[in-house]
């Protein structure tokens, strides 16, 4: 039976996975910067806590799907180093999940920011 890892080791491994994804995946870097810009704008506009929570949840959804996508791509590359139709299908599906999350994040961002930005512009 495999020995259990300590909680601290579990969290260290999880942070390592996040850090590696941020350091080596271009799209993850884009998502992190976009999330930081959104949160900065939300703070500057003094959005209500409910809107901030919605934005945080949305950003987390995009970042989590990007990490999952990276994990799936790595596992598929390990299992099928040569091109295979099923490998392509798995990788395309996981990338599609990120696209869905990112598209809905943009939509939610528009809904949350529309009124505050219009008010700021005096429209």
Span between termini: 66 Å
How many beta-strand elements? Answer: 0
Question: Major sheet: size, sense and barrel closure?
Answer: none
Tally of individual helices = 4
Supply the helix-strand structural class.
mainly alpha
**Strand share of the residues?**
under 5%
Low-confidence stretches: none
How many whole angstroms does the radius of gyration measure?
Answer: 18 Å
Mean pLDDT: 95
- Based on CA inertia axes, which overall geometry fits? globular
GO cellular component, one term: plasma membrane
Membrane topology: Multi-pass membrane protein
Family: Belongs to the bacterial diacylglycerol kinase family.
GO molecular function: ATP binding; kinase activity; metal ion binding
Notes on the structure:
- The protein has four helices and no strands.
- The chain is mainly alpha-helical and 123 residues long.
- The longest helix has 36 residues, at 85-120.
- The mean pLDDT is 95.
Structural key phrases:
mainly alpha; 85% helix; globular; 123 residues
């Amino acid at each position: 039976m495999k020995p259990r890892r300590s909680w601290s080791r579990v969290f260290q491994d999880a942070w390592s996975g996040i850090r590696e994804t941020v350091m080596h995946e271009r799209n993850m870097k884009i998502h992190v910067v976009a999330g930081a810009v959104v949160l900065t704008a939300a703070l500057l506009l003094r959005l209500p806590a409910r809107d901030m929570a919605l934005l945080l949840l949305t950003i987390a959804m995009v970042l989590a799907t990007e990490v999952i996508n990276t994990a799936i791509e790595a596992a598929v590359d390990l299992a099928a180093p040569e091109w295979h139709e099923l490998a392509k299908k798995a990788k395309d599906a996981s990338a599609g999940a990120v696209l869905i999350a990112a598209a809905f994040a943009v939509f939610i961002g528009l809904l949350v920011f529309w009124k505050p930005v219009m008010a700021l512009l005096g429209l």
